[in-house]
Every structure is written in C-alpha cells, then in structure tokens.
Amino acid sequence: GVFLYNHLQQKVRNAEALAQKYKQQQEALSAQLQVVYEHRSRLERSLQKERGEHKKTKEDFLVYKLEAQEALNKEKQDSMNRYGALSSQHKILKNQHDDVKKQLLDLQLQHNSLKLEHRKTLESQSQKYAQLQQEKDSEVTNLQDTVFKLREESKLLRKAHQEVHSQLLNAQAQMEEFRQLKEALQKMPGFR
C-alpha cells in the first residue's frame, strides 16, 4: 500500500508537473495567440485601409482613364480635323505647284523663243551697225574730200577776190584820173 501510495504520489507530482508545464505552455500559447490576434487585428485594419485606398485609387484610375479617353478622343478628332485641313491645303498647294510648274515651262519656252529672237536681232543689228559704220566711214571720207576741195576753192576764190579788189582799186584810180582830166578839160575855154 505504501509502495502504491508512493507510486501514486509520484504520478500525481508528475501529473502536477506536467499540468504545470502544460499550463505554462498554455499561458505562453495564450500570450502568443494574443500577439497573433493583435497582429491579425492590425493586419485586418491595414488590409481594410489598403482596400479603401485601393478602392479610391481604382476610382481615381477610372476617372483618370475616362478623362484620358475623352482627351484622346478629342485629340484624335482634332488630329482628324487638322489632317483634313492639311489634306485640303496640300491639294490646293499641289494644284498651285502644278500651275506654277506649267507657268515655268511656258516662261522657259517664251524665254528660249525671246533668246533666239534676241540673238537674231543682235546679229541683224550687228550687220546693220557694220553697214552703217562702213557707210559713215565712206561718208566721212567723201566729206573730208569735199572739205579739202572747198578749202582749195576758197583759196582760189580769195585769190580771185584779191585780184578783183586790186582791179577795182585800179579802176577807181583810173576813174578818178578820168574825172580830174574831164574837169580840167571842161575848164579849158577852147575845148568847150
């Protein structure tokens, strides 16, 4: 009985020690569980906060996406309008370019024609100028000959004029002598 009693006491002590051990483990687990609960609570609050922020971010993103889509559509419409305007302007400029090109070809043809005509006119003028120069040289030569002849004639006429003038002076002197002689004769009584 003592042995059994001692054995039972030993088992009780072992059981109490084991119970104490389990109690300590339970307390440790309770503390750990409390920490886990608190951590979970913080995580749930953080998750709730993240969900709220995510929801707000998602709403902001949807608003941004809608605004971006509207802006893109508006930009696309503006681009199409600009493209249409530029296309019309391009057609107008292309037509103007074709007109200017045609005018340039016409002007080049006209320029070539005028150039040919100018060359012909220049050649004709050069021939006329050479002919006129030749005629002028010939006329100058004839005029020089005529001037030389006229100078010779002028010399002869001066000489003849001097001779006539001398003869006139002689004739006047003779007339004066005749007049004086006549007066002298008229004064003579017998001659009358």
TrEMBL record:
A GO-annotated cellular component: Golgi membrane
Source taxon at top rank: Eukaryota
Sections of the chain in a coiled coil: 5-60, 90-142
Keywords: Coiled coil
PANTHER family for this protein: GOLGI INTEGRAL MEMBRANE PROTEIN 4, GOLGI INTEGRAL MEMBRANE PROTEIN 4-LIKE
Protein name per its UniProtKB record: GOLI4 protein
